[in-house]
Amino acid sequence: MLDWLKNKKHPEFWKAYLQKQEAKSNRFVTLSIQTTGLNSQKDVILTVGAVGILDNKLIISDSFEVILLQYIYNHDHGFSNEFIIESKAPKSTEAEGIQKLIEYLGNTTIIGYRVDFDIEMINKSLEKLECGRLRNEALDLEIMFKKWKEFSDDKKFSIAEIAQALKLPEYDLESTIEEAYTMGLCFLKLKKHLGIE
Questions:
Q1: How far is 102 from 93, CA to CA, in rounded Å?
Q2: End-to-end CA, the chain
Q3: What are the C-alpha distances in Å from 8 to residues 20, 22, 86, 95?
Q4: Residue 179 CB contacts under 8 Å (≥ 6 apart), including other chains
Q5: Under 8 Å CB-to-CB from 90, ≥6 apart: which residues?
Q6: pLDDT at res. 73
Q7: Is residue 197 scored above 80 in pLDDT?
Q8: Other CB atoms closer than 10 Å to residue 84's CB: what's the count?
Q9: In this structure, are residues 117 and 40 in contact, taking their beta carbons and an 8 Å threshold?
C-alpha cells in the first residue's frame, strides 16, 4: 500500500506545493470563495478571491482573483452564465484556476470565514486533479471573533457583523476579492486583540 502511495504520479504543481510545506511562512492569505451552494459533495466553486498579509499589512499587490468557468454545472442546473460574461475578473477552467490558487497559496496560513467549508470545496477540486488535500494551517475569523468577545454559545456572525463590531467601514461584500480584503482588515484587528504574533 505504501509503495503505491510513494509511486503515485501527482501533477508537478502539486509536487512543488508539497515541497513548500516543509518550511513555515510568515505570510497569511485571506481566502473567500463563492459556491453554487453549501453541499461540498454536489456544489462547485464559482469564484475565488484572496489577499496576502505580511508584517501586519494587507498587500494589495499580493492578491488573487479568478472566476471558474463552470459551464457544464450551470447548464445542467439551469443557471445563467450572465455574471461570467459581465465580470471583468480573470476567468479560467476549474483545473487551471485551482492550480493557480495552489501556486498562490504556497505554504501560507489561510484565513477564512467558516474556512473548513472553503477548504473542503478546494479539496474536492484537487481530488479531480488527482492531488492530495490542502496542508496549510487555517484560522477562522468567526472563531477568532467569538474568542475575543468570549461568546460560548452557538450564535452565528456574518462577516459584515464582525466588521461592524470591529468598527471597520462598510465594504461591498458581493465580490470575493472585496470580501477577502474586508476579512483581511478583520483579521489584523482580531490578531491584535487576541495577541497573536
A1: 14
A2: 41
A3: 19, 20, 41, 19
A4: 32, 49, 113, 159, 171, 173
A5: 65, 66, 67
A6: 63
A7: no
A8: 18
A9: yes
**Rounded Cα–Cα distance for residues 7 and 176 (Å):** 37
* Residue at grid coordinates 465594504: 171
- Could you identify the residue written with the cell 472563531? 143
Summarised one tens digit per residue, pLDDT across range 168-191 is 987 777 789 999 999 999 999 999
Nearest to 51, CA basis, from 191, 187, 188, 181: 181
- The string of pLDDT tens digits covering residues 144-167 is 999 999 987 788 999 999 999 999
Task: Please check whether residue 63 is in contact with residue 32, taking contact to mean a CB–CB distance below 8 angstroms.
Answer: no
**14 near 129, Cβ under 8 Å?**
yes
Please give the Cα distance from 126 to 153 (Å, whole number): 34
The three-point CA angle 118-32-138 to 5° equals 55
Distance (Å, whole) CA 122 – CA 138: 13
| Residue for grid cell 516543509 | 22
- The whole-angstrom separation of Cα 51 and Cα 47 is 14
The model scores a pTM over 0.85: yes
- 3-class SS of residue 104: helix
